[in-house]
Amino acid sequence: MSLDDLLPPTLQIVKPGVISLLQDYGRYGMQHYGITNSGPMDEHAYLWANRLLQNNFNAPQIEICLGGFEARFTKPTRIAICGAHLHPTLNHKPLKTWHSYAIKAGDVLRFGGAHHGLYAYLAIAGGFDVKPQLSSCSTVMREYLGGIHQNGEKLVAGDSLDYPHYNERHIKGTGPFSTVVPEAYIPSYPDKISIRFIPNYSENGCGEAILNKFTQQSYRVSNEINRMGYRLKGEALPHDGKSIISQGISTGFIQLPKDGQPIVLMKDRQTIGGYPLLGCVAHLDVAKLSQSKPGVEVEFVKVGIADLEGELGEYSGFLLS
């Protein structure tokens, strides 16, 4: 046995791309301390990538935004790529998204620019071996939390991520793994999307007249988007400019600031806010919005909680088991 055999397998980051972050399912139970949930922007793609490898649903992955990523594997393993199509290649050979692949020692994985969508997810068999911070390794740059150095920093060239040893005999065939997500579960990322939301009729809302106006027009995703929130652009909604008493807020909440242009709060949102709320985007539709580039047209459709509970329960039972 050589010294190299004793070293842990590592993924060596050659180019981090525009922004690449370590994410697990998220940091829950910390909002009363002012700490956000974080986790994958596109939960659907993240969960499917882990499922393809029979990982625990919480296994850490790399979230790659807009591409430009390059890395080298030191030992054999298996990976899955889901989400946006960022023109991935393995040793210069094109790969498909929503697939899993066998990896050999020395293989080089690259992602080009974004073609459809914004976020791609790179999962590895067993998950990346990263020490959690406050119960999660999810990276929140604003809060200096998570990541491989537990300081909220994005991945940079020269970083190395350990991953579990993998039995090489499994990569000679498909083994126990599915190699591709069924077509029915693979989303497209069109130029126009419909987003379901639960309207807010409470005293911290905007009133029924404004809600009706909100649903009677469409919006465009603006250039002001990030992991905290997506600002939309359209005909400004009438607003008296008054704030409300700050309250706890959740992923998907739709705030109406003074300029009348809605903001949908995403995974790295703040934990409290004082803008009136139009409602909350359906949990499963947050992923759809997260993959929408600036310029994508968005329309909002009112739904009730009862319309979504069964769907979410079935989805969670399947992908979070």
TrEMBL record:
Domain of life, source organism: Bacteria
Gene3D superfamilies: Cyclophilin-like
UniProt cross-references to Pfam families, sorted A to Z: CT_A_B
The Carboxyltransferase domain, residue ranges: 32-318
InterPro entries: CT_A_B, Cyclophilin-like_dom_sf, PxpC
An MF annotation (GO) of this entry: hydrolase activity
Coiled coil: none
Keywords from the named record: ATP-binding, Hydrolase, Nucleotide-binding
Name used for this protein in its record: Biotin-dependent carboxylase-like uncharacterized protein
Native organism: Cocleimonas flava
